[in-house]
Design a protein that fits this description.
By secondary structure, the protein is of the alpha+beta class. Helix content is 26%, strand content 19%. The strands form 7 sheets. A 6-stranded mixed sheet has the order 2-1-3-7-8-10, sandwiched between helices. Strand 1, helix 1 and strand 2 form a beta-alpha-beta unit. The chain starts with 26 loop residues before the first strand and ends with a strand. The relative contact order is 0.10.
């Protein structure tokens, strides 16, 4: 097996080996739900089997080598609280890498939020008997803030929704330094930390778990690659390498395409051992050559045509032979030659058999390209102002800040608990509702958060203005669940105020965003911490960081800092 997206095998036996995350400082939680009580949710015994097999592979020293006590397995008997407590406990202990895996049914609500279904889940009410992905994400980030890398793997329907809900909410040290106005005496390397989310399907597609298969399709491909390795790759495989192989295999089958959402190149930084090239001697940590998937070890041909010694299966004899540089070089050269021969054969078998097949492929490709360009031009047209085929073109609706009173819903008055203020912007007008949602555009939406003051005294109300800009006209839902603002002390990762807490959920409030006229959302904070919703004492004086995130898109957060003075 070899993935077309990976590079060639190393030409020298001393090729660089990337380090594997420290097992002593890493943790993994694997959840496989195989039984369900709701009649619309079919049993998934393959999900439970896949979680068990992955747990065994993660404990194997030829893959990662996690100690057994560092791997937590949870099944259908687990409740929501038990799962979140297990993730919380593992996250608090991990300082290198934290991995959380879930396999089972996935549900979504009307707001396109993802829920991980447990045994007692209700298919008609996603909030019942499930683990909200948002809750899981918050536990991972708040409890696991010491972990260098956080990996989440989801094998469930609509799992791609997790990508849109995974924007970071934790300030980096560079942000805190700016908030405290301190001089950074050393360079901060942000690429060393971050999150990575791998999903089995896009946001709108189901995942496949064939009844006759031992594992779900995505998990089965993942297990096979970790178990057998990748011929032609290096001694270690990055998470991105593994994902590329899984993605390549599922695309060839016509299955839903897996998704990857990673910050700071995390998927390229985390590596596991490649079983196709190197293994670990059970009695030693010395890497030795390992051949897998063959009934017997074939003889190695040397230049004079004679057969060299076979690589024995006995670990001691194999390690003795491989200490000889000449034999090791010969074995690796033979493996490279075999890989090149296999690659040539695969390329020949995949070429079209005749000229007419090539012509047909070119015609289909040209038609698809023309159709895509036509659709892009049509979709980018501001259709909110179209009056008919013969009417003249008017300006885009997203570039105006007002709309006719008959088409505009009045903006609700600002609530004392901090509901967003939209000013005089058009809300839910017919023109706006005809615009594509910002989540459906290929453009890059950007956020900009500003504070009305650098320092707030007792008579001031902290006020923050969020600008949402899009290169093409689109609409965004600015209810607190979608456009979130959180406030945390500069030296603490835990927010003390959030727009989603203690706030009555209003109906949908769609406003337009465009290059010239951004969508503007204003938040005012009453200075009362609302984590418990009944605190009456105002926040203490100090430096704070406000963070705004757009929950429907996987884009960087916007942050600003400010100072609260004593009352």
């Amino acid at each position: 097996m070899r993935c077309a997206s990976l590079g060639p095998s190393p030409r020298h036996p001393r090729a660089r080996v990337m380090p594997v995350p420290d097992p002593a400082h890493s943790r993994a939680v694997l959840i496989g739900i195989g039984a369900y009580t709701h009649p619309d949710l079919k049993p998934l015994p393959s999900a439970a089997a896949g979680a068990r097999r992955l747990a065994a592979l993660l404990r194997d020293r030829t893959v990662w080598g996690l100690p057994p006590e560092h791997v937590t397995e949870l099944g259908a008997e687990s409740s929501t609280d038990q799962i979140l407590q297990a993730v919380h406990g593992a996250a608090r202990q991990a300082t290198d890498t934290l991995l959380v895996y879930f396999a089972g049914h996935g549900l979504r609500d009307r707001a396109e939020r993802l829920y991980l279904a447990l045994a007692g889940a209700d298919a008609d009410q996603p909030e019942i008997g499930t683990v909200s992905y948002r809750a899981l994400r918050n536990v991972l980030r708040q409890s696991g803030h010491r972990a260098r890398y956080r990996l989440t793997v989801l094998d469930c329907c609509y799992s791609g929704l997790a990508g849109a809900m995974s924007a970071s909410t934790t300030p980096t040290r560079a942000d805190l330094a700016r908030a405290l106005d301190e001089r950074q005496t050393q360079q901060i390397d942000d690429t060393d930390y971050g999150d990575c989310v791998l999903t089995s399907a896009p946001p709108t597609r189901p995942s496949f778990a064939p009844p006759e298969a031992a594992y779900p399709e995505f998990t089965g491909a993942l297990i096979d690659i970790l178990d057998r390795g990748v011929m032609g790759a290096g001694p270690t495989l990055s998470v991105d390498d593994v994902w590329q192989c899984v993605r390549h295999r599922l695309r060839e089958r016509g299955s839903p395409e897996p998704q990857q959402f990673a910050q700071n190149g995390v998927a390229r930084h985390v590596h596991l051992h490649n079983r196709a090239v190197t293994g670990l001697n059970p009695s030693s940590e010395e890497p030795v050559l390992r051949r897998v998937g063959e009934a017997d070890d074939p003889p190695v041909q040397v230049r004079d045509g004679r057969s060299a010694d076979r690589v024995p299966r006995d670990p001691e004899r194999r390690r003795t032979i491989l200490r000889d540089p000449k034999r090791r070089e010969t074995i690796l050269r033979d493996l490279e030659r075999s890989n090149r021969t296999l690659d040539r054969a695969m390329r020949r078998s995949s070429r079209p058999r005749n000229l007419w097949t090539r012509v047909a492929l070119l015609a289909v490709t040209g038609s698809a390209l023309a159709g895509g360009i036509g659709y892009a031009l049509w979709a980018s047209w501001p259709d909110g102002d179209r009056q008919g085929a013969g009417s003249s073109k008017s300006s885009a609706p997203a570039q105006t800040t007002t709309a006719p009173p008959s088409n505009r819903s009045s903006a609700p008055a600002r609530q004392p608990d901090g509901s967003p203020d939209l000013g005089k912007q058009a809300v839910n007008s017919k023109a706006i509702m005809r615009l594509p949602r910002c989540t459906e555009t290929d453009s890059s939406v950007t956020l900009r958060l500003t504070s009305a003051r650098n320092s707030y005294h007792a008579e001031h109300t902290p006020t923050f203005v969020l600008n949402i800009t899009s290169p093409s006209a689109c609409r965004v839902n600015v209810i607190p669940e979608s456009v979130q603002l959180s406030i945390a002390p500069a030296l603490d990762n835990l927010p003390i105020w959030s727009s989603t807490s203690c706030t009555a959920q209003p109906r949908d409030r769609w406003i337009a965003a465009s290059p010239k006229t951004p969508a503007v959302v204003t938040y005012r904070w009453n200075r009362l911490p609302n984590k418990s919703c009944d605190i009456t004492e105002k926040a203490e004086a100090g430096v704070y960081v406000a963070t705004a995130s757009l929950d429907s898109l996987f884009i960087p957060d916007a942050r600003t800092s400010f100072v609260l003075s004593a009352d």
